[in-house]
Amino acid sequence: MSEVYAARRARLHDQCTAAGSAAALVSRPANVRYLCGAVPPGAVLLLGPVQDVLVAAEVPSVPPLPSAPPRAEEPRLLVLPGAEGDPAAAAADLAAADGAESLAVEEHDLTVARHRALGAAAPRIRLADLGRAVEQLRIVKDDEEISCMRIAGELADQALGELLESILVGRTERHLALELERRLVDHGADGPAFPTVVAAGPNAGRPGHLPTDRRVEEGDFLTIRLGADYRGYRCQVGRTFVVGPSPADWQVELYDVVFAAQRAGREALLPGRACRDVDRVTRQVLDAAGYGDVLEPRTGHGVGLEIDEDPRLSPSAMGKLDACVPVTVEPGVHLPGRGGVRIDDTLVVRPEADGGPELLTITTKELLAL
Question: Which of 15, 31, 199, 338 keeps 20 to 30 A from 208, CA to CA?
Answer without folding.
Answer: 31
